[in-house]
TrEMBL record:
GO terms for cellular component: ATP-binding cassette (ABC) transporter complex. PANTHER family: SLL0384 PROTEIN (PTHR34857:SF2). This is Putative ABC transporter permease protein. It comes from Gordonia aichiensis NBRC 108223. It is a multi-pass membrane protein. InterPro entries: ABC/ECF_trnsptr_transmembrane, ECF_CbiQ, ECF_transporter_component. The chain crosses the membrane at residues 20-38, 44-61, 68-87, 107-127, 139-159, 237-257. It is found in: Cell membrane. Keywords: Cell membrane, Membrane, Transmembrane, Transmembrane helix. The keyword Transmembrane applies. GO terms for biological process: cobalt ion transport.
Length: 258
């Protein structure tokens, strides 16, 4: 499985957040995201509190804001969609700088942008502080079905290889005079996509056979001190879960005073 593989988003530094058990951080991530999503979009102060919680975690994890922000561009397509909503939605409208905008669309756009931003930031925080090699056992400890865990881990492991392969194919096509922006090159792009799909399928079969020949039974074994950390203690659960618990309190308070 490549115990020494390090994901590009992982920051190899020492901090309390890095040392926290992976299964606890994963649960905190899910709870935090659900709390953000469940918060009414018509209110603004809860999202400021959520952002402050993330800033506090970044400080403990020694993750600079300048490292997080460039990697959040992944949400750019959703921002573009959000910008169009105030113009497309119906209902009551207001004039802003000479433009007639839908109130419902403005709230919808705000909800998409802020919730997406906080969700992406929280996910990047988890990725920056969690080695990929610890995910399999953490998922097993949380009761994730044994069939899903290896599939998820293999996807995480090989998505970088497939991305690198796609880049090499793009460079090879460009070196032969290909211009992906030209319509007549659509066939070459489609053939490349199909080729990558077939190669990834064949690679998956080869890797699976190699794992089975080495005694893999479908369950990721625990190897304390080698590829995994020790199980979380009740004290660690209570301490590490504080940011997620605070987010739940903020969401519940927002609904209470709404």
């Amino acid at each position: 499985m490549g115990a020494g593989h390090a994901h590009p988003l992982y920051r190899d530094v020492t901090s309390r957040v890095h040392r926290a058990p992976t299964e606890v951080k994963l649960v905190c991530l899910v709870v935090f995201v659900f709390a953000v999503v469940a918060t009414p979009r018509e209110m603004f102060w809860p999202y400021l509190v959520f952002a402050l919680i993330l800033l506090g975690v970044w400080r403990l994890a020694r993750v600079p804001v300048a490292w997080i922000v460039p990697r959040m561009l992944i949400e750019a397509p959703f921002v573009v969609l959000a910008v169009l909503l105030p113009f497309a939605e119906g209902g009551r409208r207001i004039d802003v700088v000479g433009m007639s905008l839908s109130v419902a669309g403005l709230y919808a756009a705000w909800g998409i942008v802020i919730k997406g931003t906080l969700g992406v930031a929280a996910s990047l925080t988890f990725a920056a502080t969690t080695p990929a090699r610890e995910l399999p056992v953490a998922l097993s400890r949380l009761g994730v079905p044994r069939t899903i865990t290896p599939v998820f881990v293999m996807m995480l492991r090989y998505v970088d290889l497939l991305s690198a392969e796609v880049k090499r194919m793009q460079i090879a096509r460009a070196a032969r005079g290909d211009s992906p922006r030209m319509l007549h090159q659509a066939k070459a792009v489609a053939v490349s996509v199909g080729s990558v799909f077939l190669r990834s399928y064949e690679r998956g079969e080869r890797v699976h056979l190699a794992m089975m020949s080495r005694g893999f039974t479908g369950t990721i074994p625990e190897m304390p001190g080698v590829a995994t950390s020790a199980r979380a203690t009740p004290a660690q659960w209570a301490l590490v879960s504080l940011p997620a618990a605070a987010a739940v309190v903020v969401a519940a308070t927002a609904w209470g005073v709404r």
